[in-house]
Each structure stands twice: as C-alpha cells, then as structure tokens.
User: What shape does this take?
Amino acid sequence: MGGERSPVLTTGLPQNETSEKSVLKLLLTGQDEPVGPTAPGAVEKKVGKGQVEILDRLIDDNRGKLTIAANQSELREQLARLQSTLDTATSRSGQLIASRSALLQRRRDLEAGESANQQRASEVRQLLARFALLREQYESDLERLRMVGEAGNLLGYFQTGICVFCGAEPEHQHPGHHLAETTQLVAAVAAETRKTTELHRDLLSTIEDLEAQTADLNAESALHDDQLTGIDSELRALEEQLEPLTTDTSEVLAARSRLEQELAIHAQIEQLEEMKASLSNVLPAPPPVRPDGIPAADVSDFEQAIHQTLEAWHVPGENRVTYNPTSAEIAVDGRPRGSRGHGMRSIIHAAFVVSLARRNRARGFIHPGFVMLDSPVVTYRQAENRETDPELMTYDVVEHFYRDLLDNPPGQVIIIENGTPPAAITERARIYAFSVDGSERLGFFPPRDHTSTD
Assistant: This one.
C-alpha cells in the first residue's frame, strides 16, 4: 500500500492501464464502458478521432488554467465564505458611508449658513461705515447751529445801523425790526437743532442695533467654525475606519473573482466532457488517450468521500483531495500521493479503498463487500514523532483509523498489520496473531482440520 504506483493502476503494466481505469469508472458510476460498433468506417474513424482529440486538447488547456488545488465543492464553500465576509464588510462600509454622507450634508449646511452670515456681516459693516459718516455730519451740523446761536452778539445782531438780516438802512426800518429779525433767527436755529438732534439720536440707536447684530454674527461665525472643526475630526475618524475596509473588500472581491473563474473553468471542463461523452455515443472512435470517462460530479463526490475519511482519521493538514484522470493519481493538499513518504502513501491508499467501499455500499453500486488492507499504518508517523520503533505509532491517527473502521465499517474489513492495535480497539476487533507462540494459525488461511478426512 505504500508503493508509489497509483491505487487504480494496480499492475503497473501500460497495456492494462485502459482496463484498470475502466474498472474504477465502473465502480464509481455503476456503468460499464459502452460497446461500440465492431467495424466503423474509415471516415467515421478519422472524424471521430479528430473531434475527440480536439475536445481532449480543449480539456487539457482548461485544466492547465486551473490555479487552485481544490475541487468544485470546495471552491463553492470558499466562495460562500468569501461572499459572507463580503456581505459583512459591505454592510459595515454602508453604515460608515451613510454616516459620512450625513456629516458632509451637515458641513454643507453649516458652510451655507456661514456664507449667509458673512454676507450679512459685510452688509452691516457697510451700513456702519455709512452711518459713521452721517453721524459725523449730524454732529458737525449741531456744532454749527450751536455756534450760530451763541454768536449773535459777536455778529452785531443787536446793534443799530444797517440790518444784518435784510440790509435795510435805519431810516427804512420799522420800530422793533431788529428784535423781530433776531427772534426769527433764534427760532429757526432752535427748530433746526431739535430736528438734527432727533435724527442724531435715531442714528445712534440704529448704530447700536447694527453693532449688536455684528456681535451676534461674529459669535455665530465662531460657533460655525467650532462645529466645522468637530465635523472634520469625525470625517477623518470615519475615513480611518473606511480605509482598511476598502482594502479588505478589494482583496475579497479579487479572491471571489478568482474563485468564480475557477468554477467557470470547471463548468467548461464538465461541458467538454459531456460533449466528448455524447460524441462517443454518436460516432464510434478509437479508445481515447485517457479512457476514464468518469463524470466530473462522480469524481468530485469520490474526492469528498476520501476527504471525509482522512478527516475522520485525524490525518494532519486540510486534506483537500483531487483526482487526476490522466495519471489516475490522487493528490492531497496539492501534493500527489506518489511524492509523499511511505507512511502517507499507505494511509492515503487505505483512505482510497475504504472510501470507495463506503460510497458504493451507500449507493448500492457493485463492490466485493469486503476491504483488505496490508500494513496501512505501520510506517505512518506525524512530523514531530522521531521514534524509530514501528510499534510506537502516532496513536492520534492510528487509534482514529481503527475506531472509524469499527464505528462505520464499509463492509468486512481485514487488516494485516505488523503493529499491535491500540488497547481500546483490541476489545472490539477480532485479532489473530500469526507465527507466534500460542497463535491459532500460522498464516492467513485457517489451520487444516487434521481430524477430517480428505
């Protein structure tokens, strides 16, 4: 069982390779190779051979494009996990993006309010500048009126002679003329003073109101600045949370794309295999280079069965199983069985045989009904086990190997092994020791009954 030859190609003879692959197909599918016409024509032979060769070339090209050492079921599981991760990341990103959009809208609203605030403040400043000039004008007018009222005597308003108001000579002036003119001047100055004073007072009230508005606008502008600073801080925090999510999402999308491409290639290979199978039914052709003809679904199902067996035996690794129909070889975790050590080759061979028996028994396919394993675990050790004595096995694998066969037997199981099974197993299994003191038999066959007659 530890040999480098494939478990399918038992004889190792090239002339038997076609029939040995056909046996595996019969066991996996329950269908024997179809019987073709006995004497196909020369043209049919050439056409059928050419079509099959083209399909084989296309199948090989597509298999060469595969980059992930996993079957379709494993690829779908990985794709489902990636989709779940992507959905979680998308949901989280959506929440963060919604929060960022709300903050950006608040920022735009604050900026619009600040723009209107600045425009109003500019208008108020312009009004204050104009009212300052008007205030100076009113105060100048009031000062001139005060000077006019106080300068009557200095200007000779009460002196005799030519009237300073109308220019009349004394002989032409009526009695009390000078007094009347002076009274009218005083009244006019007082009236103008009252009017200007009221306008000045109203102006001061308006200026005070505008200055209060300026203070309010400045306070509101400062509040806007504080709010904008807070929003910018929150936006930076959101960006820091979004950046790794964006990177992770990009990586997940790239990985999902690769898995989808792999599944698409597998689907194309299945389609080409089906075309090849249908072509074989329509036109007889010589035996192809790889006469396996096993549907991809059956191969994937068998790979999964071996994977489950290796997992039940606690064999280290991920135990991803792939079957190469060209070489009829099994690879585990991307490494062909033939490239493994003697112990791993034996345990993989045993898993191949046991899984085939279990699968066929469950489906009602043909099978001899028993499994015989020759030294499947005597040389197997984990990497950390440095013992050289075959009896000192890695009991984690060995014990689960025997326990699985007892708990879930694929039929009758016969194991020829140099090592002694674990103590927990010997109580449940029937064990015969060969060629030792007290053994019931010297070999595999039971002893001849010497009392019987020939």
